[in-house]
């Protein structure tokens, strides 16, 4: 094993463990276990909020899969990836204060909590919880695989051993520290991601003989590498612009991102997070995808895209520095996995168990169940990841699209439209999920666009039409209930 590379990774993991043990003190002493374990007692400052959103969004796809595709497609994929710059801005501007005010008013700890109180519907809660569990299990499996593959390529260990080390590393600090450990480790991991991106980008440009030389080499191999349309001109304007819906606007509907808009401390923290988050996401996305393209003239002939990042780091940097830089993709993967794990755990405990199985469970029982369920979930994902899927990034994006199609309108319209009701929300969720699965399976690029676009449009019109049609009926029911209560 290359200890010069591995030593910085071990130090990074020790720091992460330390944060987990530090956060566990808050969990053990808090008077409100659920608020602390699943929401960090709503105490996130601006910097931590920005970095936890960035780190949660930055994943195996951003640091491993994305640069791998950029290596194959050229600068066209960099342009497409830059549509993610607006992600943090949109999430906090659209959800921002309104979401925080309403979630505090409803005493919501999860996104499903908010939907439950807003729409007063058991079926909205059930469909939401099932969607989160199914889609985020897919996303978690993809991230678990990405983390294990990275450790495998860096250490020379076999895949199963690498997966075991990765799983134990994440489980320890998430299980004992809850959301606070996740958010603070995300902040540390976000800083590592920024520094790693900067160092590797500079080293890659130097190794390639400067940007002009790299561009000349790319043009000589295939002139399409430096156009916006991809290596085989398949990145059409319609597809690139529609991708913006998936990785830009639609991200407001991802539960693991939305829940962070419920956890900030005050308006100052929110405004600071909007600025920091937008700048950091832009820098990381631009840097990592440029590294993927610039790596092509330096290391031609890499057939597996997922290996581009580790190989270029080991090629252009001293071993000890490569170890530090490669902590960045490991940090990105861990920060996404930990957020998904705590979210699925909160969905099962808060949204399913406490709502429908044992609403009056004691605090001690809730605490033991939360820790146990989180550990069991991690173990199940570990078993799922033993037989890894090949197309890492597409599996991840499938989960993203499914959640966006399900939740975007129930969340946004629930915040800003008084006539939004449970019938509109249910119709929108069912149509959004089902049409997304149908399009993604049988007609992946309808009208040349990404398969998430039409389901989002269809679910919007379904939400509005059904809400308007049923508004009068709900108003009459409400009036009848008031009259009955007065007579009683």
Automatic annotation (TrEMBL):
* Pfam families, alphabetized: SSF
Task: Output the GO biological process annotations, alphabetical, semicolon-separated.
Answer: sodium ion export across plasma membrane
Q: Mind telling me which residue stretches traverse the membrane in this protein? A: 6-23, 44-64, 76-95, 123-145, 157-179, 191-216, 236-254, 274-299, 319-349, 369-386, 392-416, 423-443, 449-469
Cellular localisation: Membrane
What's in the GO CC field? plasma membrane
Q: Which GO terms describe its molecular function?
A: pantothenate transmembrane transporter activity; sodium ion transmembrane transporter activity
* Topological category with respect to the lipid bilayer: Multi-pass membrane protein
Keyword annotations for this protein, in alphabetical order, are:
Cell membrane, Membrane, Transmembrane, Transmembrane helix, Transport
Q: Which family is this sequence assigned to?
A: Belongs to the sodium:solute symporter (SSF) (TC 2.A.21) family.
What is this protein called in UniProt? Sodium/panthothenate symporter
Q: Which organism is it from?
A: Virgibacillus necropolis
């Amino acid at each position: 094993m290359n200890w010069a590379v591995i030593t910085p990774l071990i130090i990074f993991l020790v720091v992460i463990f330390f944060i987990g043990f530090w956060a566990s003190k808050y969990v053990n002493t808090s008077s409100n276990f659920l608020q602390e374990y699943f929401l960090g007692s709503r105490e996130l400052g601006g910097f931590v909020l920005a970095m936890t959103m960035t780190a949660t969004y930055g994943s195996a796809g951003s640091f491993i899969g994305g640069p791998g595709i950029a290596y194959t497609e050229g600068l066209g994929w960099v342009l497409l990836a830059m549509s993610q710059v607006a992600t943090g801005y949109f999430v906090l501007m659209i959800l921002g204060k309104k979401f925080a005010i309403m979630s505090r008013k409803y005493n919501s700890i999860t996104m499903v909590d908010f939907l439950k109180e807003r729409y007063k519907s058991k079926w909205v809660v059930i469909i939401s919880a099932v969607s989160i569990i199914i889609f985020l299990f897919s996303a978690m499996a993809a991230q678990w695989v990405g983390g294990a593959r990275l450790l495998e390529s860096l250490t020379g260990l076999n895949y199963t051993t690498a997966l075991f080390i990765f799983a134990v590393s994440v489980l320890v600090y998430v299980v004992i520290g809850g959301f606070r450990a996740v958010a603070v480790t995300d902040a540390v991991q976000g800083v590592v991601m920024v520094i790693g991106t900067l160092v590797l980008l500079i080293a890659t440009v130097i190794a390639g003989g400067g940007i002009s030389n790299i561009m000349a080499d790319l043009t000589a191999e295939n002139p399409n590498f430096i156009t916006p349309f991809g290596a085989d001109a398949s990145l059409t304007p319609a597809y690139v612009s529609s991708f913006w819906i998936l990785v830009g606007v639609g991200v407001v509907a991802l539960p693991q991102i939305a829940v962070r808009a419920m956890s900030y401390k005050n308006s100052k923290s929110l405004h600071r997070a909007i600025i920091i988050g937008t700048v950091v996401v832009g820098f990381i996305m631009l840097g990592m995808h440029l590294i993927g393209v610039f790596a092509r003239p330096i290391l031609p002939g890499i057939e597996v895209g997922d290996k581009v990042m580790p190989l270029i780091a080991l090629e252009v940097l001293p071993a000890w520095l490569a170890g530090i830089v490669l902590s960045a993709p490991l940090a990105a993967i861990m920060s996404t996995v930990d957020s998904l794990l705590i979210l699925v755990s909160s969905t099962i405990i808060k949204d399913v168990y406490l709502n429908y199985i044992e609403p009056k469970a004691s605090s001690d029982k809730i605490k033991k169940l939360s820790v146990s369920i989180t550990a069991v979930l991690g173990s199940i994902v570990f078993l799922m990841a033993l037989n890894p899927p090949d197309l890492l990034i597409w599996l991840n994006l499938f989960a993203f699209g499914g959640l966006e199609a399900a939740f975007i309108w129930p969340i946004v319209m629930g915040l800003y439209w008084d006539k939004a009701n449970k019938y509109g929300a249910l119709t929108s969720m069912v149509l959004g999920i089902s049409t997304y699965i149908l399009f993604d399976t049988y007609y992946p690029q309808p009208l040349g666009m990404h398969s998430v676009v039409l389901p989002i449009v269809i679910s919007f019109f379904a939400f509005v039409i059904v809400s308007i049609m049923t508004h009068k009926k709900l108003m009459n029911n409400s009036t009848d209930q008031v009259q009955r209560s007065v007579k009683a």
